[in-house]
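Async update (no meeting this week)

Hi team, since we skipped the sync, here's where things stand on the single-chain job. The sequence we agreed to prioritize is pasted below, unchanged from the tracker. I ran it this morning and attached the output directly underneath so nobody has to dig for it. Comments welcome in thread, and please keep replies under the output.
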Amino acid sequence: MLASSAIENQEPEHNTLHASPEAGVKGRHPDCWAAYGRFLFASIEKRCPNRVVPLNDMLFYFRRRYCNIDLSVVYAYQECDDLRTNIWTTATKALETLSNRFAIDTLNVQVAGTVPPEDADGTSLHTVLNGRYTALAMPHETRDILELGESFEAFLTSLGHSNRRHMKARHKEAVQAGLQFSISSDPAALGADDRFELALISRPMPYPRDLVDAFDATASSKPGFFHASLRSPEGLLLSYCRGFIEADTSVILYQFNRKDLPKLSLTMTLRSFLIQHWAGTYVNRILFPMGLAGHLTHAATTNPITRIFFLRRSPIAAAKALLMSVLVPTSDASRMVRTKGFLMHFLRGDPGGRKAEAQKRPVGVAFR
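Output:
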């Protein structure tokens, strides 16, 4: 017997962190959703979900602390007014707005859109805001979004033959085996405490409790909070996910699956029930901020977004960046200081600066 509960409006007492103004955003472009999702995931990964500050519907940021010390390290998402706008115009707008409010030594900002050809290799340094900051653009494509279509059957037809057959088979097998799918907007429902045990044995990687708590804090702060589960007929929790719905988009922040039952294809199976639940409703797409892998990868849309790293041109900011490049070799600060010609560019600057100009490339054309 398949169990499914409809998502109801969340009660006010469940929104304990802050009211989310982005709940009023209508028609956010999928590329913008992809960039926003990456920013949201960064806030969770760095254990800063409670520090995200929405200045307005277009700009969100958080300040990251190290050992409880504020080092003027800021992360942001800037919504663009028009996807044809040059990404430098959008990113510099965020930098200018935030630097007028408080000191910023480094700013890591996510924006939607493609980069100009000269920045395509991710190694071109620029100077912005009258020589106050050095900047580096790092373009990439994401496959984070599934467009749902008018029905579950319509979604299936959008898949390739092999993936369509695989999803239909897993879904049918789950129903025949009596697996129980449930979805709810009540945080206390579905025996949610089981998720911590499942997180530790999840595949492809385990999740510690503090990371789960960070994800949960973000999800439960949203008016459109939901969680969904897949259980065996005996009640064993097999797969579990949490997220929120905003406007016409469902955002799934995490999904945990038992690793000792690989033949059940739990990732695909739970997602098949979610797609069936939402397809044909006001929910038009599902966003996976951590990205999609496996059978549904090629069903996801390709969204071009750019991460731009700004470093203030001061001795203190440079020292922090050099220290970060040693402590965290994979960081954006490390990538900038290791870029060829960085030291000379940082010391001398670029008299021409980076100009804001109209983006000539068509909307939605991915960086190649």
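Quick observations from my side:
Residues 1-25, 351-368 have pLDDT under 50 and may be disordered.
The radius of gyration is 22 Å.
Reply here if anything looks off.
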